[in-house]
Specification:
Chain lengths: 107, 116
């Protein structure tokens, strides 16, 4: 199985700042990586797929980059609603696997 | 509006069975592959099973293969997960989600607790 290593596990930031979350795959997954946002009381939201393609409705302050084994989710100019848990997921092969998550907290 | 509503969860003893359902609305269910994904308390997400739109392709995580069965009824817009020989480690919030690669809509989830 492809192991997905996400870092950091926790990240504290303030509104207006920019943050980056890393996701590393144990082998090449081409660009088949998705990013999700998890918030209490809401359904999980797909933000980005295929490494860098924004899902419809995802604000442009979110961006994804990378290919092969190394990927990054960047959120520019954080808004209050961005404080949440973020997961990466590879969709290159079955079983699809997720990173352990990054909790983005308000500093 | 796309909606996925899971049901059928609850408390069950180890070794027993349970069947989850996910009723879909707001999109053409028969056109999309569907998944079950779970999250154990305090843990991350684990993909469990996938079924293609016409049920031709089915995949399972190794942790559930041989014990869980995914199925769908396109006439009823409903996805199922039959779970047998349940173990304590199957305790989790179970989500249904749409998609054959990434998962572009998720349900709210249904809790399954396996305990004596």
């Amino acid at each position: 199985d492809v192991q997905m290593t996400q870092s950091p596990s926790y990240l504290a930031a303030s509104p207006g700042e920019s943050v980056s979350i890393s996701c590393k795959a144990s082998k090449s997954i081409n660009t088949y990586l998705a990013w999700y946002q998890e918030k209490p009381g809401k359904t999980n939201k797909l933000l980005i797929y295929s490494g860098s393609t924004l899902q419809s409705g995802t604000p442009s302050r979110f961006s994804g980059s990378g290919s092969g084994t190394d990927f990054t989710l960047t959120i520019r100019s954080l808004e209050p609603e961005d404080f949440a848990v973020y997961y990466c997921q590879q969709h290159n092969e079955y079983p699809h696997t997720f990173g352990a998550g990054t909790k983005l907290e308000l500093k | 509006e796309v909606q996925l509503v899971e049901s059928g969860g609850g408390l069950v003893q180890p070794g027993r069975s349970l069947k989850l359902s996910c009723v879909a609305s707001g999109f053409t269910f028969s056109n999309y592959g569907m998944n079950w994904i779970r999250q154990a308390p305090g843990k991350g997400l684990e993909w469990v099973a996938y079924i293609s739109s016409g049920s031709s392709y089915i995949y399972y995580a190794e942790t559930v293969k041989g014990r869980f069965t995914i199925s769908r009824d396109n006439a009823k817009n409903t996805l199922y997960l039959q779970m047998t020989s349940l173990r304590s480690e199957d305790t989790a919030l179970y989500y249904c989600a749409i998609g054959s690669s990434s998962y572009f809509y998720w349900g709210q989830g249904v809790m399954v607790t396996v305990s004596s």
